[in-house]
Design a protein that fits this description.
Elements: E1 6-11, H1 40-52, E2 61-66, E3 74-77, E4 83-86, E5 90-93, H2 99-112, E6 120-126, E7 132-136, E8 142-144, E9 150-151, H3 152-158, E10 166-175, E11 181-187, H4 188-193, E12 202-203, E13 208-213, E14 216-223, E15 229-234, H5 241-247, E16 255-264, E17 270-276, H6 277-281, E18 295-300
Parallel strand pairs: 7-13, 14-18
Antiparallel strand pairs: 1-17, 2-3, 2-6, 4-5, 7-8, 9-12, 10-11, 10-13, 14-15, 16-17, 16-18
């Protein structure tokens, strides 16, 4: 077999199966988070499904429509005791019901009052009982009430947009129906610069959005580079090996083509990544994304 020009070897612990993760979904039972990896049409279907399973609570704003009796159509805000009041049927307990369950409850009450037929729809317009929490580098952090159908960009704009301290990542955290939490990581460049609709996620009541602040990434150079030592980057941009070498002034004339990146995994175990610089420079192997604390060792060539 030929030699491998980009490889990892353990020192002494096993190498993690994935060094870089662009999207993290930590549990297998995804629930509504499954929409994140789907197409735009699938996202719309998943959004409708999630909204339909929402449980109504106090201060939510509702729209009630009765096809056969338009004078019963109304806009309602759920009282603190979890009820609404409609003419003809009076007070109705709505706390804990879905939209479909509320529509059916109203229909049953109308039939009990003598109507022969009742076609009822109930829609949540504002999710006031379970606002969306927006944290981190935004102009107005805190709880935000969202309308029935909102996306990640909608909520960020409602929070006044991201500040200059915003980094390159946004975390969206959601509690699934089984009580477990799901999380997805979004790159801000994908959302705002590339305009990728797949990352403009549907946002639901109770979600938490965290715009991570910018942080500094330190990359260390040792050996045959023009400027050895520590370089500091802001994490709002992807830092690659070629970018770091350029910032260090390039390799010296006596530098070897065999580069070594020394890195620690999450458990503190050190491992190494071997890179063939000539092949990297010629585009024959992919550039390597660097992480905070990486040590790049450039040895002297003896040939």
């Amino acid at each position: 077999m030929g030699s491998r020009h980009l490889s990892t070897r353990k020192l002494p612990a096993a190498i993690p199966t994935a060094l870089l993760l662009s999207i993290l979904i930590p549990i297998s039972e995804l629930g509504p988070m499954a929409a994140f990896a789907q197409s735009s049409s699938d996202d719309s279907q998943a959004m409708a499904s999630a909204l339909g399973s929402y449980r109504i609570g106090p201060r939510d704003r509702l729209t009630i429509r009765v096809q056969e009796l338009p004078n019963l159509d109304s806009e309602q805000q759920v009282a603190d005791d979890g009820t609404i009041t409609l003419s003809i049927v009076g007070s109705i307990e709505v706390r804990g019901l879905t939209e479909a369950e509320l529509a059916e409850r109203i229909r049953e009450k109308l039939l009990a009052e003598g109507m022969r037929r009742a076609t009822v729809t109930a829609t949540v317009n504002e999710y006031r009982s379970q606002p969306v929490s927006v944290l981190g580098a935004v102009t107005r952090p805190g709880n935000h009430v969202i309308p029935g159908r909102s996306t990640l960009i909608d909520v960020l704009l409602d929070a006044g947009g991201m500040t200059e301290q915003a980094g390159s990542k946004i975390l969206v955290r959601r509690r699934a129906a089984n009580g477990l939490s799901d999380q997805v990581e979004i790159q801000t460049d994908d959302l705002f610069l590339a305009g990728d609709p797949k990352v403009n996620l549907p946002i639901y009541a109770g979600d938490l959005i965290h715009v991570l602040p910018v942080q500094e990434i330190s990359i260390h150079f040792l050996g045959e580079v023009a400027t050895a030592g520590t370089l500091t980057f802001r994490d709002n941009k992807r830092v690659t090996l070629l970018t770091a070498i350029a910032r260090a002034g390039g390799l010296t004339e006596t530098a070897s083509n065999k580069l070594v990146i020394k890195r620690e995994d999450d458990s503190g175990q050190r491992f190494e990544i071997d890179v063939d610089y000539r092949k990297l420079l010629n585009g024959k192997i992919p550039d390597v994304e660097l992480q905070d604390g990486d040590l790049i060792v450039v040895k002297e060539s003896f040939f």
